[in-house]
Amino acid sequence: HVKTxxxxxxxxxxxxxxxxxxxxxxxxxxxxxxxxxxxxxxVGDSLAQVCLGYPSTTHLSLDEMLHHxxxxxxxxxxxxLIADMPFxxxxxxxxxxxxxxxxxxxxxxxxxVKLEGGEETVEHVRALTKxxxxxxxxxxxxxxxxxxxxxxxxxxxxxxxxxxLLRAAHALEDAGAFSIVLEAMPALLGAYITEQLNxxxxxxxxxxxxxxxxxxxxxMVGTWSGHKPRWVAITSCFVPPCLLWLRFxxxxxxxxxxxxxxxxxxxxxxRNGSFPDSEREGYSMDRDEWEKFL
Length: 294
Ligand code: KIV
Ligand code: NA
Known about the structure:
Layout: H1 6-14, E1 19-23, H2 27-35, E2 40-43, H3 47-50, H4 62-75, E3 80-84, H5 94-106, E4 112-116, H6 122-130, E5 135-140, H7 159-175, E6 179-183, H8 187-196, E7 201-204, E8 212-215, H9 217-221, H10 228-235, H11 240-246, H12 255-271, H13 287-293
Helix pairs in contact: 2-4, 5-6, 6-7
Sodium ion binds at residues 44-46, 84, 143.
Function: Catalyzes the reversible reaction in which hydroxymethyl group from 5,10-methylenetetrahydrofolate is transferred onto alpha-ketoisovalerate to form ketopantoate.
Family: Belongs to the PanB family.
GO cellular component, one term: mitochondrion
């Protein structure tokens, strides 16, 4: 498989070949992303909820993120390896952003970073790009700000909010971002921003008109369930935008069903004595040795 470079992403964008992005949080998911290779593997800070059981991404520390980045890096080959900068590790100041991003490259072994934010993060993106750390920007719904945004809501549905997003997209491209995630916005706006930019856009709940798509691993394979906090946050605000939010997830497999089948099969087999089978699933011993032992 060919290694994904930033140049290759640009040519995929130019030829309108959709770019594929999946999240990975550990060695086996990184191997899976590399075997049927996606273009970009993202160690998303959705790690906080789907793997670590935190109620939101704001609980994730840089050290926790680094631990998972290293595991993913060990299994990652051709996809470009990008990781989210955790909440609080870049926004406070440009020098915080530089320090944290350098740690993510040196200790996390990732090839680039992603950070959430609009025009307020332009200087951060510029500084990282300047020292040679590729940056993926992220606008629209910003999960690290779910409290200030009053929940996980679709963004850019008014003319004013759409203009703010378009301005941010241009500013982030000018600052050097190699790509930009568009999360939870009307499909029309996702396509419009994509046409206005030269860098590839990666959509999640932004319609089919972006340069590529990203999904959270657990949403994609259908193991997303025991993570009530995010689920409750999304479904407990009964207004149309929240219904829209749910629209972008498609389960491409039903791994949860298989997990239930496996665990209940194992438990039943142990309890009813059918596992292990002494001949097929055990080790034998010479009769002589056994008698000596006795
Ligand atoms: O954290 C994450 O998984 C993400 C992607 C869904 C874009 O930011
Ligand atoms: Na994220």
